[in-house]
Amino acid sequence: MAATFASPSTVVGLASTTSLLPNPAKKFSLSSGFERDWLRTDLNVIGFGLIGWIAPSSMPAIDGKSLTGLFFESIAQFPTPPPLTSQFWLWLVLWHLGLFITLTFGQIGFKGRTEEYF
Question: CA 79, 83, 86, 89 torsion: positive or negative?
Fold first, then answer.
């Protein structure tokens, strides 16, 4: 009643050299060229991205007020936390979402240009 199975390193019916599991030593070895500075941070991207987001978000577009102005006005109540129904949470999410999107596209664009992807 003992069942016989193929060994876990070979596929039944194929040549015995076909492996089901990849060799992790080959995939993640340091000799394969993995860069230690994989993030490749650059202060130019952070500086230009921050300016690139603060400038348009400071233009009056919401009832004659800017998104940055609305966000900073809502912080004025600082020691006391805002209630969950406060507009602060909307301005917080929108302002930071715009900032992170700008920084992400800035990183893609700047590194793509310096590494000649486009």
Answer: positive
